[in-house]
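Structure first, sequence second, as always.
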């Protein structure tokens, strides 16, 4: 009976994700990158990649999961964990409430157990719509619990990063998550379970400086911004003009920071192949 309800919930979440992306009443879509107009339906069919220039639009966490996991395999982990206000930061509680109402998320990351082509895995997806995907103590806790779930059940781990970095309203409580998630990944590595890190636009700040860069295999979506500080800050610091495309996925690929740049349409296939080659998890 639990399996029936789990499959039903998975379908409802997938439908909600699709409905959220179709929410606009406009029939045409204007790409923020090239300015070209396309039919919104066509953009949706292309997994929200601009048909004219290939620009990869940001995806919500549930929608991303619906494009990666097998239908009916989704089981959310620790879905009720949400941020507190450890420092009593002025206006923070109101911003959290607004973000939760706007996105329908409890926090800036959704973690789940599921399967890709029948291969069991644990997946976490950050959502940039929730306070720029910033890493709070709750985000660090959810990611750490997902890592520990993968270790306990001997499953591969996949994390999709999309973040502006640490959440300033939580100060040191947020920065501590860099060490916390990295330590959890070290324990996972000692158990011999693979960790695939997928960098999407943008992956910056403390997320880049911690778990996002610790993957056994690091993939990136085309055009994703990947770095610690922003280009303007770097230019002002070093007093030099940065090369064209600096911090983009293709530049990072050329310089060995990522293993491959994978278009969204091939991402599920690529992850499936990597799990077959390196995974030790069970099959459904």
């Amino acid at each position: 009976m639990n399996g029936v309800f789990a499959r039903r919930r998975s379908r409802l979440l997938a439908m909600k994700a699709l409905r959220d992306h179709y929410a606009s009443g406009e029939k045409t879509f204007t790409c923020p990158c090239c300015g070209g107009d396309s039919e919104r339906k066509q953009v949706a069919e292309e997994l929200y990649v601009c048909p004219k220039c290939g620009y990869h639009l940001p995806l919500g966490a549930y929608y991303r999961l619906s494009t990666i996991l097998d239908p009916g395999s989704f089981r959310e982990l620790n879905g009720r964990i949400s941020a507190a206000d450890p420092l009593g930061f002025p206006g923070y509680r109101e911003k959290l409430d607004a973000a939760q109402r706007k996105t329908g998320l409890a926090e800036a990351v959704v973690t789940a157990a599921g399967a890709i082509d029948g291969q069991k895995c644990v997946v976490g997806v950050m959502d940039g719509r929730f306070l720029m995907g910033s890493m709070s103590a709750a985000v660090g806790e959810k990611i750490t619990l997902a890592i520990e779930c993968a270790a306990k059940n001997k499953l591969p781990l996949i994390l999709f990063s999309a973040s502006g970095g640490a959440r300033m309203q939580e100060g040191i409580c947020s920065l501590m998550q860099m060490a916390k998630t990295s330590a959890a990944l070290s324990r996972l590595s000692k158990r011999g379970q693979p960790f695939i890190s997928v960098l999407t636009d943008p992956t910056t700040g403390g997320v880049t400086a911690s778990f996002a860069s610790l993957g056994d295999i690091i993939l990136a979506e085309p055009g994703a911004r990947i770095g610690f500080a922003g280009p303007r800050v770097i230019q002002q610091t070093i007093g030099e003009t940065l090369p064209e495309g600096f911090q983009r996925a293709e530049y990072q690929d050329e310089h060995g920071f990522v293993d491959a740049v994978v278009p969204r349409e091939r991402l599920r296939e690529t992850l499936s192949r990597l799990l077959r080659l390196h995974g030790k998890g069970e099959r459904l």
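Margin note: The longest helix spans residues 2-21.
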